[in-house]
Every structure is written in structure tokens, then in C-alpha cells.
Design brief:
13 helices; 40% helix; seven-stranded mixed sheet; binds S-adenosylmethionine; Rossmann fold; alpha/beta
Length: 286
């Protein structure tokens, strides 16, 4: 199912393969909170909004009905094609293939800019230089007073044993690798503050990230279509995936996997499955 000659922006996942089955396995969590933040930015129907790295358009498809103009920039051709197919050719949506590290929009253009589960794809280096480029582009293209809304995960949520994703317990080496791709929330907020973003808020988004079956049926994680939609598998060798599969099967046989699922879901109830950070571009600084 490889489609490797198409454009792809992630630093390590080939999303042109992933998107063939992405919608089946994922849910757009935090939509309610995202809409809330948009309405605090201004009357939603007056807003010009950008989504960066929109994937197959799960968020955009909803947001478009609330705002005046919806723009999207996505790094994968397959994602763009899937979103276009889903959304159709509606008047207020403009989607483009592009890179959020260098946006093709003039300064002070957007009332709000959102990225959902994208930041961990920007960098392979631990000092997150591309994250800084992304934030600078957000600053440049947002209007003064505009909102930046980021959906990502904390290190606590990603912890293989005590975090919120039960399957990470069965692939702890890869879980450590993926956690390293996620900027720690304190580093992210410091970088935002350094650039002049203000009114920074941390919100626990409601809803779940994976399809409902992930939370009740561990055999889902053994299925290739599920494995293709979780970035942790992009960072695992075939041998590691085989070992994880074996460990999950053993856990299903002795029942321990259900204990792990219960623990992880309990933790998710406490701290959520993701973190949403919102901030404003100050009105008095360019
Ligand atoms: C985990 S997916 C999330 C997709 C979508 N936001 C969602 O939550 O359903 C990450 C997305 O970010 C996109 N992406 C990664 N780096 C990018 C970049 N530098 N510019 C544009 N898109 C990028 C990938 O192509 C992929 O669609």
C-alpha cells in the first residue's frame, strides 16, 4: 500500500501510507474546547482560521461550519486528497499542500491558528528548532490579539506504564522514543512566552484520540490498520512490533492486559488523553 513518491512533511512517518486508514482509527478530541476558544477570540462566524497539519480533515470538517473562512495547510498529498474528498468544494474552505514551517500567507492574516497532534512530527532534534520556526510563523501570520491553539500530549500522558495509552506498556522502548519527539509542555510554553505570546492557558480536552474499540478490545492494536495510524509504530522496528504483538497476546491470555487498560483509562480520566494550549498574540508587538 506504499505511496512513497507523494509529498510528505512529517520528520519520520510516511503519512501517505497512514492516511489510507486514518479516519477509521482516530477521533478529533478536544473539538468542544477548540470551538470555545474560537468563540472567545471573537464571534466565530467572523473569524478567519488556519489549521496546520490537518491530516484527513477531521477537525477542519467541523470547524468550517462555525467560522467565516477556513484555511488548511497539510504536508501530505494523501491527507490533502482525503480531506478534499471529505469536505468537498465548499465556499469558505481553502486547503493547500504546504509546510507549516514556512507559511504562504501574509502577516496578520488569521484570527486563529490551530494544530492538532502535529508538533511531535516537526523535529528529530531535542532542542526543537522546527518548533521555534512553527511558532514564529504562527506569530507572523496571526493578527494582533489572534489565538494560537495547540493540541499535543504531555510526558505524563505518554509514560509507558503510568500514562494514558495502555498499548505503550507493551512497547516501552518505542514509547520512550516517541516521548522524546514531544516537546515538554514547560519548554513549549517558555518558547511561546519568549516570542511574546500571552494569556497562555492549559486545557484538558474532552474526548478520546483513538477509535472506541481501542478502549475495550486489545486485539485492535494487533491489527495492521490500527498500527498504521499511531506514530509509535513508525518509530518501531518490525522486530519490536512482533515482540509487542506477542506481549499483548500473552497479556490477553493471562488477563493482565485488561488491568493495564483499566489503569491507563483511569489515568486518562484524571489528566485527559491530550493537552490543549491556547495563547494570544499580544496587540502591541509585531
Ligand atoms: C498525527 S497527524 C494529525 C492529523 C490531524 N491534525 C488530526 O488530528 O486528525 C500529523 C499531521 O501533521 C502533518 N504534518 C507533519 N509535519 C508537517 C509540516 N511540517 N507541515 C505540514 N503538515 C505537517 C502530517 O502530514 C500529518 O497529517
Amino acid at each position: 500500500m506504499g505511496d512513497t513518491d507523494k509529498t510528505n512533511a512529517s520528520a519520520y512517518c510516511n503519512y501517505n501510507d497512514v492516511f489510507l486508514l486514518y479516519d477509521k482509527n482516530r477521533q478529533p478530541n478536544g473539538l468542544t474546547e477548540l470551538l470555545d476558544i474560537l468563540s472567545q477570540t471573537g464571534p466565530a462566524e467572523t473569524l478567519t482560521v488556519l489549521e496546520g497539519g490537518f491530516g484527513t480533515g477531521a477537525y477542519l470538517n467541523i470547524l468550517q461550519h462555525h467560522v467565516k473562512a477556513m484555511y488548511g495547510v497539510e504536508g501530505s498529498e494523501q491527507g490533502l486528497a482525503a480531506a478534499r474528498q471529505k469536505i468537498g468544494d465548499t465556499g469558505n474552505v481553502r486547503l493547500a499542500l504546504g509546510n507549516i514551517l514556512g507559511l504562504d500567507f501574509r502577516e496578520n492574516f488569521f484570527d486563529a491558528y490551530t494544530v492538532n497532534q502535529v508538533l511531535h512530527h516537526l523535529d528529530t532534534s531535542l532542542d526543537f528548532p522546527n518548533l521555534t520556526l512553527f511558532l514564529k510563523e504562527a506569530w507572523r501570520t496571526l493578527k494582533p490579539g489572534g489565538s494560537l491553539i495547540i493540541n499535543t500530549c504531555s510526558q505524563e500522558q505518554l509514560h509507558p506504564l503510568t500514562g494514558v495509552y495502555w498499548s505503550y506498556a507493551y512497547m516501552d522502548a518505542a514509547a520512550a522514543r516517541i516521548a522524546a519527539r514531544y516537546v515538554p509542555i514547560e519548554t513549549l510554553t517558555r518558547k511561546m512566552t519568549d516570542l511574546g505570546f500571552m494569556d497562555i492557558k492549559h486545557i484538558v480536552p474532552s474526548g478520546r484520540l483513538f477509535e472506541e474499540r481501542y478502549y475495550s478490545d486489545p486485539s485492535l492494536v494487533l491489527e495492521p490498520h490500527f498500527q498504521s495510524s499511531d506514530s509509535i509504530f513508525c518509530l518501531s522496528s518490525p522486530k519490536e512490533i512482533e515482540q509487542a504483538d506477542e506481549r499483548i497476546r500473552a497479556g490477553m491470555e493471562d488477563g493482565s492486559v485488561y488491568e493495564q487498560m483499566k489503569r491507563s483509562m483511569g489515568k486518562a480520566q484524571e489528566i485527559g488523553e491530550a493537552v490543549m494550549i491556547s495563547a494570544r498574540k499580544s496587540r502591541d508587538k509585531d
